[in-house]
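Consider this record:
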Amino acid sequence: MVQKLQLLHEGKAKKVYSTNNPHELLLEFKDDATAFDGQKKGRIREKGALNLAISVLLFEYLEKENIPTHFIKKISTTEMLVKAVKIIPVEFVVRNWTAGSLAKRMGIEEGIKLKKPILELYYKNDELRDPMINEYHIEAFELAERQHIEKAKEYSFAVNDALIRLFESVGIILADFKLEFGIDSKDEVVLADEISPDSCRLWDAKTMEKLDKDRFRRDLGRIEEAYREVLKRLETRR
């Protein structure tokens, strides 16, 4: 039986607890919502439960696509058991359409499909507001080993291909998304954190309606309904 022990870390969207197994951790998903590097804060009703349910479906799907993840099993509506991994302090952002900071940086309107995916790397540091970096920064500041970064890049594109197929099958465009990776006890790279409307831009393929956290960022309303719609569509693929 899994025992929830010490709170190890509390982030913007989750709490991490130790368990009675030193190789396993418990993640508790919160209803708290933040945007613009924590400058905007709020709560989204049932967000924790919805994000956990969506993440479970996507982790299970990706495992079947031969992409290793830290997910072990769902414990409750807001808690999942995961492998204890050392998180690589780099966020891997894959972009398929112009949106968010990419559109702003390039001076391009939102909603243009890119000819090929773009992979961007960001230093995972809230105080510095997650600045964009590249492999030279990672090597110079010894943020991660080269082979781990190369494997994470490989998995990022594999995840993108797999999720595009999945979301297209339920009428959703995967505009962009953020991934985090960790190193397990066997020195292998595995997908970690979560995959949800908090970390993905998801648009309805017919109407281009936003089904993700941009509804919170931009005060569009109907946030819970959008998250629930993503879950409902994914559940039809079970």
